[in-house]
Amino acid sequence: MQTIIILDHGSQYTQLIARKVRELHVYCEIHPFNKVPEISNEVIGVILSGSPCSVRDADAPKPDLSFKGKLPVLGVCYGAQYMVNAFGGNVVASKIREYGRANLSYVDRECKLMRDVPLNSQVWMSHGDTIETMPEGYKVICSTESVKNAGYKIEGEETYAIQFHPEVYHSKDGLTILKNFVVGVCGARQDWTEESYIETTIANLREQLQEDKVVLGLSGGVDSSVAAMLLHKAIGNKLNCIFVDNGLLRKDEFESVLNSYKGMGLNVIGVDAKDIFYKALEGLTDPEKKRKAIGKTFIDVFDSEAGKLTDVKWLAQGTIYPDVIESCSVKGPSVTIKSHHNVGGLPDYMKLKLVEPLRSLFKDEVRRVGKALGLKDELLKRHPFPGPGLAIRILGEVTAEKVKVLQEVDDIFISNLKSEGLYDKVWQAGAILLPIQAVGVMGDERTYERVVALRAVESVDGMTADWSHLPYEFLAKVSNEIINKVKGVNRVCYDISSKPPATIEWE
Questions:
Q1: How many domains does the chain have?
Q2: 103 and 54, same structural domain?
Q3: Can you tell me the mean pLDDT for 194-214?
């Protein structure tokens, strides 16, 4: 399979490059600059990402460029500056930080990379250094009023570089530039589609698993559902799925999820473990301790159920590409913001090998693959839901009584989003039960009851998010319904914080 390799120098935009390349129906992989993969015959080009570092720093990333001159290369921002600095040019600190919008005042339209890019095209700059002088054989292919060497080509090579970011929305012709490189220079066939991914993955799974049995923990979410269908198409009834009711699911979710899997041909075992989880959470208020308790309990329950199956050799997980990228980042695994209850596999004593059918896909790609597999919209369009469930939406200790209250609140919120046609416009939504009470009045009586917060965000992949600007009339209707129908709640708030600095979940 034709592959574009992206070498990551720690830029926040690296994933955006990958997403844009994949939008062109070309497969690409992100690798840390210090772990360059084997350059096989399938690799048709390399992109060098930006970086928060300066090439002048003593500890600046120094990628091995032994492939330069043999393969097409595109340097972006830091990548452009590194190739200048490493081969005899001069990179200096900018007198004025070059950040934000700029316009191309010169474009070499004869250059393959700049084909169909108009004069005055808006680009996005984000660097504190600039290229002062270039090595011999480096030809300028574009400029702005303040940056003469905004882009260049190395003569005698299919090596190109630009000091701006074509992957961001603000670079109006950025996708054209990336297409010029990936298709025009590298010769990509643009044949990486959902259908081709399914065909290739099923074939690879059959070769990997042979006649072995596999167990998969279903969550009802899109990742595990799509993973299950890919495995089912590859190995049929040798796949066994386990769906655990941890008592922290949404209202009636256990039954509705099991029902949605009917007709899909999957072997699904439903396990009611509510009381076990509630017991494990007794007295815990710290978010990380709650997550770890849920994780341990999940493993114990899953192990017990998996142990009832005979001759299982593989554990399947719905790991997706952002998880993989974070685990092998430039500086090692990223700082733990919060742990995940089912990430990291199962204990060694289970002796299961790991299979991850979705590890090369982003979330939106998973949904497209699921659609191509024929999954129902109720699974594909389901909002992301945290593994620990409502436990991290109940601030403080978790009890069955609190879960019941939050389930009712959440159900009213989600049901109204669906009935008002807002559900599909929101990336994720839910309710949070706060550890406080507030004074209210109902009729002529004073109340002192619980406070809940509603949360709805818009996002692409959850890595950043903005709060959803839901209509005031809608929020008023939902608030009124919650207070009238959910006993013990007398106040409703709406969370208008974005990620960052806040996270989507409260714990």
A1: 3
A2: yes
A3: 94
